[in-house]
Amino acid sequence: MKKIRLIILAALVSSSGVAYANDVYIAGSIGQSDFGSMGGATSSDKNGTAFKLQLGYQFNPNWAVEGGYVDLGKSTYSGPVPGYGMATVQIKATGFNIGAVGTVPLNDKFSLFGKFGMIDGKVEAQVTIPGRSGSASATKWKPTYGFGVKYDVSKSLGIVGEYEHFDKLGDDSTIGFTAKINLLSAGVMAKF
């Protein structure tokens, strides 16, 4: 998996050497993730603070490829475990992603976009019950998709708002669950 990440990063960086003006961009966003519900939980804080950093290459006004790092934040669930009392599970999700981005300009300032890709998602779970605790993690490539809107403040700076879905992060056999995580975020995009 590390080789795949290095190949992706090298491809994105090397593409900047042959790029024309404003074809390479960096985007940073912050938002709120929703980890969904967990069976058996009587209380939950399923929303986490998330952020992401992306490096992209715009081939033409309609198509781009981008990749980077996504931190989907943490969520906490609590519920009874027969014979042990209340258990607390804290879940954290992060990963490196890559994807294709399709853009439809609405006018010279606004555009809509959709994206489809993959994330090498790592999910870490920390379980605590009275007198005991344990942790487990799982890392797997999973599909992602999203859509959003971009407003160009200038030729080199834009504001982005988007919704993304990260499908079935985790692993039922390793950590006992998978999570469908949604992310609403807003950020800025700088073109070079």
Helix and strand topology:
Blueprint: H1 2-15, E1 24-34, E2 43-45, E3 47-60, E4 63-81, E5 85-105, E6 110-129, E7 132-152, E8 157-171, E9 177-191
Antiparallel strand pairs: 1-3, 1-9, 2-4, 3-4, 4-5, 5-6, 6-7, 7-8, 8-9
Please outline what is shown here.
By secondary structure, the protein is mostly beta strands.
Keyword list:
mainly beta; eight-stranded antiparallel beta barrel; 1 helix; 192 residues; elongated
Q: Your description of this structure?
A:
A hairpin with a 3-residue loop joins strand 4 and strand 5. The chain is mainly β and 192 residues long. The protein contains one helix and nine strands; from the N terminus they run H-E-E-E-E-E-E-E-E-E. An eight-stranded antiparallel β-barrel has the order 1-3-4-5-6-7-8-9. The protein has one helix at residues 2-15; strands at residues 24-34, 43-45, 47-60, 63-81, 85-105, 110-129, 132-152, 157-171, 177-191.
Alpha-carbon distance between the termini?
29 Å
Low-confidence stretches: 11-21
**Radius of gyration based on Cα positions:** 19 Å
Could you spell the SSE succession in H and E letters? HEEEEEEEEE
Strand content: over 45%
- Please summarize the sheet with the most strands: 8 strands, antiparallel, barrel
**Helix fraction by DSSP (H/I, runs of at least 4):** under 10%
- The number of helical runs is 1
Q: What is the strand tally?
A: 9
User: What's the shape?
Assistant: elongated
The secondary structure category is mainly beta
The average pLDDT value, as a whole number, equals 88
Please give the order of strands in the largest beta sheet. 1-3-4-5-6-7-8-9
